[in-house]
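YM 10:42: dTTP/UTP pyrophosphatase sequence, as discussed on the call
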Amino acid sequence: MSRLILASQSPRRRELLMQLGANFSVASADIDESVLVGEQAEAYVSRLAQAKARVIAQRHPATWVLGSDTTVVVEGEILGKPQDEEDAVRMLMRLSGRCHTTLTAVALLRIEGEVEQCLSQRVATQVRFRPLNEALCRRYWATGEPADKAGAYGIQGLGGALVESIEGSFSAVVGLPLCETAQLLEQAGLATWLADA
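YM 10:58: structure's back
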């Protein structure tokens, strides 16, 4: 077992973590991703990132586990993964021609005995969409890409053509902010190509 486990089956997060040169294994963390009543987006993504890491850390004591969660927020509304085509079209039309915030939280967590250590960061990136129409949204849905993405788009794929500009971390919008994740790994004494531990 490696000293680090990524609590995600996301190929995008796995590829991003590989860019840091970290030695890690992968485990699936299935949790309830429902938004709690009255929960703000910042608290929501932080809670989910920690919950994903905690589920795996409980199975692997004394091992650092990295959890991450990304959500899209427009005018205070949290846009998670779409339920179906109509939900995806609704989300994309909400984002059309306007700026929204993509929030990504990262939690590096370890449980040893009764002691839980948790290092975390949260990153906000501003993303502006080009104007869209319903026909374009439906064509995009038909590609299959939006189905498992927060806000119904993937900036690293076909959905990148919908984005006019971003202000902040591109890798955070994809699902794992590289700079902040590297800093957390370094704090925990885990090796990356930036700072060998």
